[in-house]
């Protein structure tokens, strides 16, 4: 017998990978695209945070978006405005820390990924 699980969709394993980050509105915001996998029919959310050094300042933005999981890898994207106390984003190296949360009911599970990438203009 398999170990007990609180997941309704035990066949699916939560996963996330960061695809790209693109400047929006001259660096006032950033569009992050990720690929996520979560249980078919479950409520999912993705929360990417992007951080970039801009001289002696830091540009940072976080977002959250909800969607319905398909059980297969699916692309999701989120638009996040740069923190008003920081710097605007610019083309170049940044780090994206992203988490996908899968909620088949009250018992949510999650997976995270970090990626250093180049923000595109």
Structure, briefly:
With 121 residues, the chain is an all-beta fold.
**Radius of gyration over C-alpha positions, nearest whole angstrom:** 16 Å
Order of helices and strands: EEEEEEEE
Main sheet makeup: 5 strands, antiparallel
Globally, the shape reads: elongated
Number of helices: 0
Helix/strand-derived category reads: mainly beta
* DSSP helix fraction: under 10%
pLDDT below 50 for ≥5 consecutive residues: which ranges?
1-11
Total count of strands: 8
What's the mean pLDDT score?
90
Cα(first) to Cα(last) distance is: 53 Å
Oligomer: single chain
Strand residue content: over 45%
Protein described:
The chain is an all-beta fold. 0% of the residues lie in helices and 60% in strands. The protein has strands spanning 15-24, 29-37, 43-54, 57-62, 65-68, 74-81, 92-103, 109-119. The strands form two sheets. Strands 3, 4, 5, 7 and 8 form a five-stranded antiparallel sheet that branches. It has a three-stranded antiparallel sheet with strand order 1-2-6, with no helix packed on it. Strand 3 and strand 4 (57-62) form a beta hairpin. The chain is elongated, with a radius of gyration of 16 Å. The relative contact order is 0.31.
């Amino acid at each position: 017998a398999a170990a007990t699980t609180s997941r309704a969709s035990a066949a699916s394993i939560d996963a996330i990978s960061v695809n790209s980050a693109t400047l929006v509105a001259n660096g006032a915001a950033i569009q992050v695209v990720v690929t996520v996998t979560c249980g078919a029919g479950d409520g999912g959310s993705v929360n990417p945070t992007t951080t970039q050094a801009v001289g002696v300042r830091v540009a940072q933005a976080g977002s959250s978006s909800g969607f319905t999981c398909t059980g297969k890898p699916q692309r999701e994207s989120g638009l996040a405005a740069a923190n008003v106390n920081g710097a605007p984003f610019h083309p170049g190296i940044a780090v994206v820390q992203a988490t996908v949360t899968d909620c088949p009911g009250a018992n949510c599970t999650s997976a995270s990924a970090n990626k250093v990438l180049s923000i595109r203009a």
